[in-house]
Write a structure and sequence with these properties.
- The structure holds two protein chains of two kinds.
- By secondary structure, chain A is an alpha/beta fold.
- Chain A has eight helices and ten strands.
- In chain A, about 35% of the residues lie in helices and about 25% in strands.
- In chain A, strands 6-7-8-3-9-10 form a six-stranded mixed β-sheet, sandwiched between helices. Chain A has a four-stranded antiparallel β-sheet with strand order 2-1-4-5, covered by helices on one side.
- Chain A is globular, with a radius of gyration of 18 Å.
- Chain B is elongated, with a radius of gyration of 28 Å.
- The longest helix of chain B has about 40 residues.
- Chain B contains 19 helices and twelve strands.
- Classes of the chains: A alpha/beta, B alpha/beta.
């Protein structure tokens, strides 16, 4: 399922965060967004997921559309677009009062009205996929950061999304734990999942991305295949940015 | 020594005599000593005091003192003597020195004018469901308890008669004749039921070591009896009756120089105040305290949650309304609220001509008052707890397609309750102790039971310790339970 974002504008107060951002993610591809902090990367993902309103522009994911709306009357709970999207957050946002299995089965059981047995079966299947079926009865506080993020991925997958939005999903993990999360994402890509990721993992981008987009001041500065953007970008800002990341 | 005496005489002549301090409770009600709208402080005891002051040639100053505390205050040395319808009885005689009596009291049963079911105490006892009102720590209360008649006690006669007339929470009032004469006789809606019974004596109380002053006052009382001043005061207050003739028949009181309680006090109890006697009563009070705590806290929780939701997510008008509730009930003393609910509501219902009775039972009034008050605290506690659940939890649930209500119920509320728990449990312990306030609406919970027993037995220390232990036996485990719960829930936090 493809994503089309057209001329997205978003301001916080008087400060423009997204300034006419246009981006396309073809179905089944993996697109990595990089850019300096404050460039609007996270805001863009949150707008795509309908967690935040947009001032103008249009968003289309498959057949689902998101229009611009008034911020005051906006409710993050009304968006239909999530039926096809899952979102993974930097700080996991697992439900601390529920077991690992409970985290995964909550939405299918309550939103999709699966019966308990079906929800449990689905939960175990997904936990197996992320390698955590033995931790089903643990609580989030008993897990490492990498394990938490894998549970978060399983939780998102439980709603059968066609697109996964990943917002700096490895940023709060220790280096040796990052790969276990990235491995899961690579596996999902190989199964045909459309991935839109904000990340600083240059190595992962080179290996897995179909396209890399450099964002600054709420606009796409340059986009293209990973080799082009990461190794020989036209814009000198990208070179400086990447050399800082690598150092 | 010999030289010193003329010196002291000189000093005494040079300075005006130091006034004696007399303690009584103005709030106890007429006709002893009380506040009149126009005349200020009046009462037949005040008249007797003035006559005594004249006789003793010493000024006497009034000191306001809660009736319950008169004897402890006297023993502490806060004033020279207590005179406030103090009945002579054995327990008191063991603690303090009584003067010669100045009035022979009897007890009068008063009912509503339309009462047909009974007109004696016995009839009262045999009529199912009747409750008789009386005052704390009086002989009347003891007599009723002895007769095993269900009672409700008040701290002033005014409240007791008011509850009989307007609220109808009680079926009769059994109190000293002077009070009945002051309140019930002029009231067309009340009647005297039967003849006055159960004689006893009012006397002035002194510290047992203050024998000198007591003797002087005894002599002064004798003088007032002889010269007819006492009689004219009692006549003026409509208190003179054939009984009072005995006052001047001195021989009745001359045994060992002071009245003999065993001869005179008809209601004297022969049972000793042992632990077997008062512990069951204290346990009964404890049970009422527990019930009151649980009921009012349940009310506080049930009201607190919707209030916190209205504060957080309500429409603007609902938000302001909830805020108003919180500010109002946090801002007024619970005591005032209880008084209003118990005594104020029936008066409102009556004066506005409503056909429904708003006379709440003491338990309901106390539950409502404490519950409404604590609901304000719980509302704030819940609001703060709900707000302190990280925003990311809302977003994570939203991104999974969960709706607002579902998210709140399944994700936010359970976490908020864990955050709220320590404060909630603290509030429960605080409420548990605050239930003692309910004694003002005549509810006999643990604290009130202590007061009643301590006043009758004068064993303030012993009973106080046992009562404190009973409170601790409940509040300490409650606190422990709270900490255990916190620990148990802690591992689930991230």
């Amino acid at each position: 399922m493809n994503i089309k974002a057209h001329e997205i504008c978003k301001t916080f107060g008087k400060r423009p965060i997204l300034d006419g951002l246009t981006l396309e993610v073809p179905s089944g591809e993996t697109v990595v967004i990089i850019g300096p902090s404050g460039s609007g990367k996270s805001t863009f993902l949150r707008c795509l997921n309908g967690l935040q309103s947009i001032d103008s522009g249009t968003i289309q994911v498959g057949d689902h559309k998101l229009e611009a709306s008034n911020e005051k009357r906006f409710s993050p709970f009304s968006s239909e677009i999530r039926k096809v999207q899952g979102m993974i957050f930097q700080d996991f946002n697992l439900f601390p009062h529920m077991s690992v299995l409970g985290n995964v089965t909550e939405a299918p059981a309550r939103v999709l009205k699966h019966n308990q047995a079906d929800a449990r079966a689905l939960g175990f299947e997904l936990l197996k996929k992320v390698g955590l079926e033995s931790h089903a009865n643990h609580y989030p506080s008993q897990l490492s950061g990498g394990q938490k993020q894998r549970v978060a991925i399983a939780r998102a997958l439980a709603m059968k999304p066609k697109v996964l939005l990943c917002d700096e999903v490895t940023s709060s993990l220790d280096p040796e734990l990052k790969h276990e999360v990235l491995d899961v994402l690579e596996k999902l890509k190989s199964e045909g999942m459309t991935l839109l990721m904000v990340t600083h993992e240059i190595g992962f981008a080179k290996k897995a991305a179909d396209k890399v987009v450099f964002l600054a001041e709420g606009k796409v500065v340059e986009e293209g295949p990973p080799q082009q953007i990461l190794e020989s970008p036209e814009n000198s800002r990208i070179r400086t940015f990447i050399s800082k990341l690598m150092s | 020594m010999i030289l010193q005496i003329p010196l002291m005489l000189l000093l005494a002549l040079a300075q005006p005599p130091t006034p004696l301090i007399w303690a009584a409770d103005e709030e106890g009600g007429a006709p002893y000593v009380y506040r009149d709208n126009k005349l200020g402080r009046v009462g037949f005891e005040l008249d007797i005091i003035n006559a005594l002051a004249e006789e003793l040639k010493r000024p006497i100053e009034f000191k306001q003192y809660a009736f319950d505390s008169l004897i402890p205050g006297l023993l502490k040395g806060d004033f020279d003597f207590a005179m406030n319808g103090l009945e002579i009885n054995q327990e008191r005689q063991e603690k303090i020195r009584f003067s010669k009596p100045y009035y022979i009291y009897r007890q009068q049963l008063v009912t509503r004018a339309d009462e047909k079911r009974f007109n004696t105490l016995l009839g009262c006892k045999n009529t199912l469901g009747t409750i008789v009102g009386t005052m704390d720590g009086t002989q009347a209360e003891r007599l009723l308890n002895q007769a095993k008649i269900p009672i409700r006690t008040y701290s002033s006669s005014t409240e007791a008669y008011a509850d009989l007339v307007s609220a109808g929470r009680i079926d009769a009032v059994f109190l000293d004749l002077p009070m009945a004469i002051s309140y019930a006789l002029p009231n067309k809606r009340l009647q005297f039921a039967g003849k006055p019974t159960a004689r006893g004596f009012y006397a002035i109380g002194f510290h047992p070591k203050n024998e000198t002053l007591a003797k002087e006052v005894d002599a002064a009382i004798d003088a007032l009896k002889t010269n007819g001043k006492l009689r004219s005061i009692l006549v003026k207050w409509n208190l003179w009756d054939e009984c009072q003739e005995e006052l001047s028949q001195g021989f009745l009181f001359e045994e060992e120089g002071r009245p003999n309680a065993i001869t005179h006090s008809i209601l004297e109890e022969n049972q000793a105040w042992t632990i077997n006697r008062y512990l069951p009563l204290l346990l009964e009070g404890t049970w009422v305290t527990i019930q009151l705590t649980l009921c009012s806290f349940a009310l506080a929780l049930v009201l607190g949650l919707p209030l916190s939701l209205a504060r957080l997510y309500g429409a603007p008008w609902l938000k302001s309304l909830a805020l108003l509730y919180v500010e109002f009930f946090r801002g007024i003393p619970v005591l005032l609220l209880l008084f209003f609910l118990y005594f104020g509501l029936p008066a409102i219902a009556e004066s506005s001509g409503l056909n429904i009775s708003l006379a709440l039972s003491p338990f309901i009034a106390a539950t409502l008052g404490l519950g409404l008050n604590y609901a304000a605290y719980e509302a704030e506690n819940f609001r703060a707890s709900i707000q302190s659940v990280p925003q990311g939890q809302w977003e994570a649930a939203a991104s999974l397609g969960m709706g607002k209500t579902l998210t709140f119920r399944r994700i936010i509320l359970p976490q908020a309750m864990r955050i709220a728990l320590p404060t909630t449990t603290n509030d429960l312990v605080a409420l548990f102790k605050d239930t003692s306030i309910a004694s003002v609406v005549a509810l006999v919970e643990l604290n009130k039971q202590y007061q009643i027993l301590a006043k009758s037995s004068l064993k303030f220390v012993e009973l106080g310790l046992i009562t404190a232990l009973l409170y601790l036996a409940l509040s300490v485990p409650l606190g422990r339970l709270a900490r255990a719960l916190e620990k148990k829930l802690a591992p689930e936090r991230r």
